[in-house]
Amino acid sequence: MKTAKLDDMIRGWFIGSFTPTLYATSDVEVAVKRYSAGDSEAKHYHKIATEFTVVVSGRVRMNGEEFSSGDIVVLEPGEPADFETLDDTTTVVVKLPGANDDKYLC
Fold first, then answer.
1. Do residues 91 and 60 touch, judged by C-beta distance below 8 A?
2. Fewer CB within 10 A of the end CB, N or C, for the chain?
3. Is 60 helix (H, G, I), strand (E, B) or coil?
4. Dist. CA 55–CA 41, nearest whole Å
5. Count of beta carbons in the 10 Å neighbourhood of residue 52
6. DSSP 8-state code for residue 66
7. Judging by beta carbons within 10 Å of its beta carbon (0-12, 13-18, 19+), is residue 48 exposed, middle or buried?
8. pLDDT tens digits for 48-67?
């Protein structure tokens, strides 16, 4: 059995082609991300990866639309999105395939 602490991972990413990781692969990237209310990420898109965001707890706004616990947002390659937390929020993010340097600011 292997164990780790999410706090030891960089920005919550724990599977993918980066360090540290629990499983090194370029097939997929997985993160559990924790945000405080008001945190945001600039509008961006991916050329290669499809990004799946599961809102585990809290509320977020993406592209002007509000999502809350239990909602899943799928962003296809080339589809831009911004991100803002409206409450303290936890998400699970999966990028498929894993693609380092595949984040492009709008």
1. yes
2. N
3. strand
4. 15
5. 16
6. E
7. middle
8. 999 999 999 999 999 999 99
Residue with tokens 């509000």: 66
User: Of the candidates 18, 23, 17, which has an alpha carbon nearest to the alpha carbon of residue 4?
Assistant: 23
Tokens 């296809």 belong to residue = 76
Q: In this structure, what token pair is assigned to residue 63?
A: 């592209």
Alpha carbon dihedral 43, 46, 49, 54, in 10-degree steps, equals 0
**What global pTM score does this model have?**
0.94
Distance (Å, rounded) from C-alpha 62 to C-alpha 33?
15
Residue with tokens 């082609």: 17
Residue 64 tokens read as 């002007």
Q: What is the DSSP letter of 15?
A: E
Alpha-carbon Rg for the chain, nearest whole angstrom, is 14
Over residues 74-89, the pLDDT tens digits come to: 999 999 999 999 999 9
Can you tell me the distance from the alpha carbon of 51 to that of 74, in angstroms, rounded to the nearest whole number? 6
